[in-house]
Specification:
The structure is a homodimer.
Chain A lengths: L1 E5 L6 H13 L3 E6 L5 E3 L6 E3 L2 E2 L10 E4 L4 H5 L3 H12 L4 E4 L3 H6 L7 E2 L3 H9 L3 E2 L4 E4 L2 E4 L5 H14 L6
Parallel strand pairs in A: 1-2, 1-6, 2-5, 6-7, 7-11, 8-9
Antiparallel strand pairs in A: 3-4, 10-11
Helix pairs in contact in A: 1-6
Chain lengths: 175, 175
């Protein structure tokens, strides 16, 4: 499966790197989509550095089967760009798998795709979600149809497990 | 006037330092209230480093005449601590001046004090505020009763000007 990983600087290092590695190990293709192609992207802990392989000006949702939104401060940067918001919304409209951890659901708030699916997030974002009328719970991983969400770095193993499980379920015809 | 400045790591350097210096220059007393007394607090740009002079376990709203909430990633850290949320709410309940810039209003969302006053914030937080039913506008500074808000570093001069003006207006009896 072709997974778009939307990423900007100051992401939570482990929330990007561990799922990213796990997806690749299972044979999935992961493309880092940033605000600008080639932009160097350092994690907030300074432990991981990567690069945007594609800029949002060139990325098309049709090129991907799933969307991965790591946490940290990255999602709040991404949602300041309308193209990232439109890109995110397209995955929901098409019913494609979306994996969001920690602050990742901030992008879902701005994209207006928070109504309906049961979800979780980092605790401060759980509060935002509750206030905007989302169906939010406090547990390590929540799977609702095509959406997988988790709260924090300690949830990563459950987040990876459920995301991989969902990728297995997507009908071959849609790949 | 005695101003409490609530601060945690990764604040926006200029949004803390410039108003902080301006308040002091005008003879106001500013105390940095952090999550833990003595904690070293470095800005996200790495340009400013300071220390929490008082921990939230010891700070009492009655000790202060006004509240200052700098932006950056700091407000999202602060609102994860219930004591900071209660501390913030007390200033609104008492009608004391509150100055919040950029991501500062995130703390107002969690403290449930966003309904009523006209305000502004960093553009992504403007969106959150709109969704939760706040009266939000997009301008460099908004003054509504005891609340002064601004959007970003370029608004700092207007933010300082209006905050100082409001401090002058507070009746001497309440000092």
């Amino acid at each position: 499966m072709r997974i778009a990983c939307v990423l900007d600087v100051d992401y939570e290092d482990s929330e990007f790197k561990q799922p990213y590695d796990a997806f690749k190990e299972q044979g999935h293709q992961v493309t880092i989509v940033g605000l600008q192609s080639g932009k160097e992207l350092k994690g907030k802990q300074g432990k991981v550095t990567t690069k945007a392989e594609t800029g949002i000006d060139q990325a098309r949702p049709e090129q991907f089967d799933a969307l991965f939104i790591p946490g940290g401060y990255s999602p709040d940067h991404l949602r300041a760009d309308r193209r990232m918001v439109t890109f995110t919304k397209a995955f929901f409209d098409a019913g494609k798998p979306v994996f969001a951890i920690c602050h990742g659901p901030q992008l879902l708030i701005t994209a207006r795709v928070f109504k309906g699916p049961k979800m979780t997030a980092w605790k401060t974002i759980q509060d935002d979600l509750q206030l905007v009328g989302a169906n939010v719970v406090d547990q390590e991983v929540v799977v609702d149809k095509n959406l997988v969400t988790s709260r924090q770095p300690s949830d990563i193993p459950a987040f990876i497990r459920e995301s991989l499980k969902l990728l297995e379920k997507v009908p071959v015809g849609s790949r």
